[in-house]
């Protein structure tokens, strides 16, 4: 699985945002998940951010292109899937609403990838402010007709309850930490402030656990399905239509496509190393 | 006194930053201080932020212009001083360093106004992160030759100790709040998080009290002096030089000046309503 995130993990540069890939192998109960995270350091930090989304669009398209090429091969048994299954878009915790760049970015992304909006550094918002901010963001997302990832409704009542619980919390407010702290003789991942410890995995403090469970447990398969059935099919049909219509080769068609499409970036793709057992790990999460 | 701040108090718009003035009358021990705060809502929020500093430059210049005009009048007794004495520049608590826009803005400001860099929403940085972030920012300010407000050295040893204490804490990390909360049966201004209360006026939590005392007590007079003797004199001599050199009228010269000058914005000007006692309140703080 590959995730594109708009979080800025590294120091800022004057250059426009580039993408940076890193892979993590998650093991749980004998099941392995290779998670690929595509970061976009420096995104939105320039004075002029026009077209700062282009490297991300290009990255998403290139993964679709790779997949299309491997689909056309004679031997399709070992087809790696490095398509982007999800884009985590981090919104600054301003407390005001979306910035023009947020709107522009998500609108250019939403027909290419599953966009999941998040509130970054949520430990700077009090619960009341956070609640207000979430409402404001969802209102603006609707107003601007931004199509974020739609959590599927099912016939299962319990599942619907879970989906409703997630939907009510959108955009998920998250806090990150790479430090383990001892709180009441329990070791937790958190941020140690002079006034207390903000715990990443405490649902009273932020929505991180909801995000994690949704991404790698409850909705991973749906993110993959939507990517394959909607976003990839859109890419494929437009690409092939261009080839047929213009009667030109793939490369030429690609050039034309990239100027015609008004869609966008952000990334999340799932790489599945099938374990020794040969079982599809998705089923076990 | 008038302060320009780059904090975004209001909701974002697609328009470039404009300035908004508000006045507060502070009373303390019979002394009145009329503080004018010039906010720049939406600063830096557009997709393309080129020249987003222009409205602030224009505002600073217009206040210098007003002062220059009233200096030229026959009756100079009632000369209102609405010049900008200080610019509080808020840096986002990214933990990484300055963004290109921060550098560009401060470089365009520093020869027009006393720039004081601040870290906004500092309650999202742990003490260690804050320390690191401060060092990184000061390093970059030096590297890029940004001239922030220079705290004056004096012959008084105690005063020098105070100045050293402030300098060591630059850029000051601040937290804001308009809520009063009860903590250990004491009413404090703070932010109530599920993990504790970040107190605005607790020096273990942030540098707000240092900023307040510096602005309206210890360094107010110096901010006014530097504005008058350095920034205003620069403006005045350039302005008069242009008139003399070009032999044109003020208005025309103004148009030429504003395209030639590569300086900047941010605001802080002191309005002194002289009390009934006729004493200059500055002396009493």
TrEMBL record, chains A, B:
Alphabetical UniProt keywords: GTP-binding, Nucleotide-binding
Pfam families registered for this protein in UniProt: Septin
InterPro entries registered for this protein in UniProt: G_SEPTIN_dom, P-loop_NTPase, Septin
Gene3D superfamilies documented for this protein: P-loop containing nucleotide triphosphate hydrolases
Keyword Protein biosynthesis carried by entry: no
PROSITE patterns, A to Z: G_SEPTIN (PS51719)
Domain Septin-type G stretches: 1-242
PANTHER family in the record: SEPTIN
Protein's recorded name: Septin-7
Lineage: Eukaryota, Metazoa, Chordata, Craniata, Vertebrata
């Amino acid at each position: 699985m590959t995730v594109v995130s708009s979080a800025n993990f590294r120091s800022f540069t004057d250059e426009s945002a580039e993408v940076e890939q890193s892979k993590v192998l998650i093991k749980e109960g004998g099941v392995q998940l290779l998670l690929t995270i595509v970061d976009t350091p420096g995104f939105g930090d320039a004075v002029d951010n026009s077209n700062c989304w282009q490297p991300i669009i290009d990255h998403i398209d290139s993964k679709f292109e790779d997949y299309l090429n491997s689909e056309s091969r004679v031997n399709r048994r070992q087809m790696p899937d490095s398509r982007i299954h999800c884009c985590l878009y981090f919104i600054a915790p301003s407390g005001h609403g979306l910035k023009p760049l947020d709107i522009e970015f998500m609108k250019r992304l939403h027909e290419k990838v599953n966009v999941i909006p998040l509130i970054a550094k949520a430990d700077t918002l009090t619960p009341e402010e956070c609640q207000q901010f979430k409402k404001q963001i969802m209102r603006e997302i609707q107003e601007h007709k931004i199509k974020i990832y739609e959590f599927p409704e099912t016939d299962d009542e319990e599942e619907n309850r879970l989906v409703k619980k997630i939907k009510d919390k959108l955009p998920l407010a998250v806090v990150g930490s790479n430090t383990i702290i001892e709180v009441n003789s329990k070791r937790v991942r958190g941020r140690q402030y002079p006034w207390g410890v903000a715990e990443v995995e405490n649902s009273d403090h932020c929505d991180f656990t909801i995000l994690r469970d949704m991404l790698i447990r409850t909705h991973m398969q749906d993110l993959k399905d939507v990517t394959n059935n909607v976003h990839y099919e859109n890419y494929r049909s437009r690409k092939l239509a261009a080839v047929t219509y213009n009667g030109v080769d793939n490369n030429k068609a690609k050039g034309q496509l990239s100027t015609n499409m008004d869609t966008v970036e952000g990334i999340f793709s799932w790489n599945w190393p099938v374990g020794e057992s040969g079982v599809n790990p998705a089923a076990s999460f």
